[in-house]
Amino acid sequence: MRDISKKLGLFSVIALVFVFLIGMAVDTAQAGVKIKGKRGLSLRISYFSQFYGVWRDTGSGPDGTDDTVDFYFKRNRFNFTGRLTRNAGFVIQIEHKGPRLVNDLNVADSVSNRLDMLDAFMKFKFSKYLRMRVGLTKDPLTRENNEGCFDPLSIDRSLFVYNPFAASRDVGIVAWGNFVNNRIQYRIGIMEGREDPNTPKSSLRYTGRLHLTLLKPEASLVYFGTYRGMKKVLTIGGGMQYEPDVIYGNLGAKTDAKDNITWTVDGFFEYPTPVGAFTLSGAYLDVSFDEAYKGWDPDPKATGMYGERNGYYVKAGYLLPKKIWVGRVQLYGRYEVWKYAKLNEQEDQQLTWIAPGINYYIKGQKLRLSAEYAMSDFKKEGTVRNVKTEDFNTLRVMLQFLL
Predict the structure, then answer these.
(1) How far apart are CA 255 and CA 250, in angstroms?
(2) Three-class SS of residue 175?
């Protein structure tokens, strides 16, 4: 594991030095550096990083009850954005995560490192009413997942909104566009869906999303968790997702196939005033596998952190009107309640997540410090089938650097 960490670290350093060197001779007006070719061809190379320092009040020691501290890259990403014509291009993103010990709901026995092809898609613009991504890209269902990874209000987006089979991304086609002066936006996704030996049959995943913006439009495919007081926004959205025959209620016998139906509604509001900028957002999400977890031998994917569940989050923020020293200060808090069919072997579990925090923008999102103290509260605690559930608290501090 140590050798892997060294190789990943060396890869990051070499790539970052490369970006700096070519940046000495090319356009640097935007994030990253841009290499210009003939006939409108161009390639922009960017580096995005989020480095975490984490403390949790459990997880270490002989009985796992001592405090745990951890340093790791939450995101250590290189972005390559190419332009082939005025209306065609591509995006490739490669990301390293780790070496991580403190996970979302537990502390691992050993550190983990990952190096992934995060995104790899072609993009086309046919008109303002129809644009398209083809390849590996984000699931278009929820606002939270489609907020920029480096533009959230809180230190990170909700931990509990992802798909159990594709997490935040999948391979397929996403079509989208804007109408009525960019006030109405639609997104349609036809994605690969679940593909593994435990899938009842190979089916596509179908997703639709619609939003209405009442103040300044949100016309991009990427949402923002905060505009840092630069925009008046009120957006209401919702979506639905369907994948047939995706999971077994009786995995051992390969019977009792169930569909997945997920739906969500969400809202976002931000309003700058002379005394500061105010942000408020929230969403409700319902993930159903038609009660596959009640089957004779249910697929484990039917339960757990991303399994059958419903819940909501609410986020609020306040950006102070003036700088403090060299940056802007933003206070925020998030409150989440999630009801699970089964989580950590506890049936009918409920998790409440409360997290106040602070952002310090030194150079907007390009150079940002954040700190958040998250408190978890499980409805049921204890040990079931050797899986322990207990409340815990986590302090996370993040340095964000975008080049």
Answers:
(1) 5
(2) strand
- Rounded (5°) CA angle 154-143-318: 35
Lowest mean pLDDT among 192-196, 245-249, 377-381, 391-395: 192-196
Measured in whole angstroms, the distance separating CA 293 from the mean position of its chain's CA atoms is 26
CA 219 to each of CA 131, 211, 215, 233, 249: distance values in angstroms, whole numbers, following the listed order: 12, 10, 12, 11, 41
Backbone angles phi, psi at 215, to 5 degrees: -110, -120
What b/e string do you get for 315-328 counting C-beta neighbours within 10 Å, with b at 16 or more?
A: bbbebeeeeeeebb
* 8 A C-beta contact, residue 154 and residue 225: yes
> Tell me: the pLDDT tens digits for 13-61?
455 444 444 443 444 446 678 888 888 799 999 999 999 999 999 999 9
- Global confidence as pTM: 0.90
d(CA 192, CA 161): 19
Copy the structure tokens of residue 304. 């757990």
What is the DSSP secondary structure assignment for residue 324, as one 8-state letter?
Answer: B
List, in sequence order, the alpha helices (H) in 80-187.
Answer: 143-146
Tokens of 376: 């978890």
Please provide the size of the chain in residues: 403
Give the C-alpha separation, 138 to 147, whole Å.
Answer: 10
Dihedral sign computed on CA atoms, order 93, 94, 99, 105: positive
CA dist 56 and 66 (Å) reads 9
